[in-house]
Design brief:
Layout (H helix, E strand, L loop, with lengths): L1 H19 L1 E13 L2 E2 L4 E6 L8 E7 L5 E10 L5 E7 L9 E7 L6 E2 L7 E7 L8 E3 L3
Parallel strand pairs: 1-9
Antiparallel strand pairs: 1-2, 1-5, 1-8, 3-4, 3-6, 6-7, 7-10
Length: 142
């Protein structure tokens, strides 16, 4: 009887582990500018894009430094491959409009790593925020 109980516990633990999934990670860096000057204090967030009804999983967030630079790295446990994306929230050339401009950059699958520490960093390059971006929206609650 004791052996059956131990076996049942071990099977339950392995089933739970299988449901949680495997740890995957991603990292992204870049520089944001507004009209040729560093975009300082811009909010950037790295998410695992969960399509459908499930909310996206926040993997990392931060703000650009005095040179407009950012670097984010994060991980998530998923059964299927993660879909990393970078959201950028800013007010460059926005006047007095409410909320912030928001656009998303999807990271290529080749930048997904197994484990908590990414083996590659996606370089988003230098992004001029003054223009408009495909799919750009406004976000008040980020």
């Amino acid at each position: 009887m004791f052996l059956k109980a131990v076996l049942l516990i071990l099977l339950s633990i392995s089933s739970i582990s299988a449901l949680v999934g495997r740890t995957q990670s991603a990292a992204v860096r870049g520089v944001l500018i507004c009209d040729g000057r560093p975009a300082i204090g811009v909010t950037v967030k790295l998410y695992d894009d969960d399509r459908g009804l499930d909310a996206d999983d926040l993997m990392a967030s931060g703000k650009t430094n005095q040179r407009g630079e950012f670097h984010l790295s994060g991980s998530e446990d998923e059964m299927t491959p993660i879909d990393p994306k970078l959201n950028i929230y800013h007010d460059c050339n926005d006047g007095i409009k409410p909320c912030q401009r928001k656009f998303t950059i999807k990271l290529p699958d080749s930048y997904i790593s197994q484990g908590k520490t990414p083996s590659k960093v996606y370089d988003a390059g230098t992004i001029q925020l003054a223009g408009s971006f495909p799919g750009e929206t406004r976000d008040c609650l980020h």
